[in-house]
Amino acid sequence: MRRLLLALPFALLPLAIAQANEDDHHHDHDHAHEEHGSLGAHEHGVARLNAVLDGNSLEIELESPSMNLVGFEHEAHSEEDKAKVAATRAQLEKPAALFGLPAAAGCELAKQELESPLFGDEDDEHHEEEAGHDHEEEHSEIHAHYRFTCNAPEALEGLNLSGLFGTFPATQKIQVQLIGPNGQQGAEANAQNARLNF
């Protein structure tokens, strides 16, 4: 039951955004899904982050256009592009540094999922078909989901996204939904205002 409660905000938020997009763009709903997907508008420089702290469990979900993290959205063909994708993936595999988790909280990574057409995920071909013939450039995204178990969650007063903005400077702002001991809150973070409190 607890896992279901943790998963609920992550499941409902994209559905609510997608529903709002469908209502706004009912007449061209196929085109809206191609360009918008679960993120709402695909806007370079903008990412979304959901974080839930429940007891000793911390879940973080990051969704970003590939342009923000890798510097391009097309499939990596050149050795240089492949190296950029590999470097980005390696950086995303070190979430404690990206989210500024304090050592005192004793947070251990329990689960990690990274998905993107650039990483060679199975939906690559399907994504290319959806892109259609109207535009050559794909609107690819990177989705990262992390679950931590924290030995001292009381020491985890919030997240510090300075590491994320420093590692991926093309990310200009992050729209955040936080759920923690003090309830649910929304915020917008940027490099100058990167600290988020639960």
From TrEMBL:
The source's superkingdom equals Bacteria
Q: Which UniProt keywords apply?
A: Signal
- Signal sequence segment: 1-20
Q: Which InterPro entries match?
A: ZrgA-like
Name of the protein in its database record:
Zinc-binding protein
Question: Which lineage?
Answer: Bacteria, Pseudomonadati, Pseudomonadota, Gammaproteobacteria, Pseudomonadales
